[in-house]
Amino acid sequence: MKKLTxxxxxxxxxxxxxxxxxxxxxxxxLLDHVASTLEAQLNEDNTLTFYDxxxxxxxxxxxxxxxxxxxxxxxxxxxxxxxxxxxxxxGDTVVLLFVLILVQQYFQFKIDENIFQYTNFLLLLxxxxxxxxxxxxxxxxxxxxxxxxxxxxxxxxxxGKANPISAIFLCLFFVIYYKxxxxxxxxxxxxxxxxxxxxxxxxxIVCWFSISIxxxxxxxxxxxxxxxxxxxxxxxVAWYALFKSLFYYKAEIRNQYKIIxxxx
Amino acid sequence: MSNxxxxxxxxxxxxxxxxxxxxxxxxxxITQKVKALTKGxxxxxxxxxxxxxxxxxxxxxxxxxxxxxxxxxxxxYKLTEKGTTETANKLSELQKYIETMQxxxxxxxxxx
Lengths: 264, 112
Fold this sequence. Notes:
The structure holds 2 protein chains of 2 kinds. Chain A is mainly alpha-helical. Chain A has helices spanning 6-18, 24-44, 50-88, 91-107, 113-134, 142-150, 153-158, 164-191, 193-219, 225-263. The longest helix of chain A is centred in the N-terminal third of the chain and has 39 residues, at 50-88. Chain B has one domain (5-111): Arc Repressor Mutant, subunit A, CATH 1.10.10.10. Chain B has a 3-stranded antiparallel beta sheet with strand order 1-3-2.
């Protein structure tokens, strides 16, 4: 019974990595599948060499492997968003929201737009630093990486702009942008992966800022301090929920992929 | 080798049935087992198998165990408690479907 050598395995792993399959959990499984297939072929045909078998396999299957990989990325991202949503609707989060609203009713405090923006930005920084510190290894997995991508969402949803009306429109813009990006992503990536990423990111930032400035100006007269205060409370609770699901995911990834994380 | 669309709807049931008979299995093993059992008639591609496995894992029907085998890591799948109940349901559902289809397909010959 022929078995692949350590060098052969490393070769397949490097090939998959260079083809863009960067997430450890997916790569480990794919690597095992390719290696098992090649071992079976080598045992069937004694004249076949490892490199020929590998080449034949990739010619026949590479395209499909990459398509599946991209589909999986999107699936995991949607799962993460769903989990964030669920975490927001859990008992303690809802209780916290009501307590904060009652406190506001009682003390009638008002939040200034500047405070809103500064704390929002600080929370975003805190979130990024925490996740980079605590997710160093986990972000190499599909789930970990998509969790980190989703961390910027509340910042987009609630915006650095303390304005619920503009935030709703910005969310809409983000959804449309995401849909369009996915539609043309394959076309862009086929040509040049890095260029495609820079162009789309650049376009998003330019569009985002111009639209948000326009919307904030347009909708400012409808917004008063009470609305901003409630909006602020809502946003704080959303960050709390996000922190909670962040640690939920950390535990889940650790639990499932302990050995993969240790090996790499 | 047939990869008819008719098999597509039963893929999850096939996976669950195999896992209920074997304590734990990995992806490649499942494809080979199906191929052997059906004498090459049904060939599950990795493009169909892994998304199905990942979905079942996300739904809590399967759980994952990673172990080191021959210079590499291997991801095994096994049924959870929820998975065992799900398997029984899916199998009886499929059995019923087969009976219904048989009744439909055979009805013409009986009439004639």
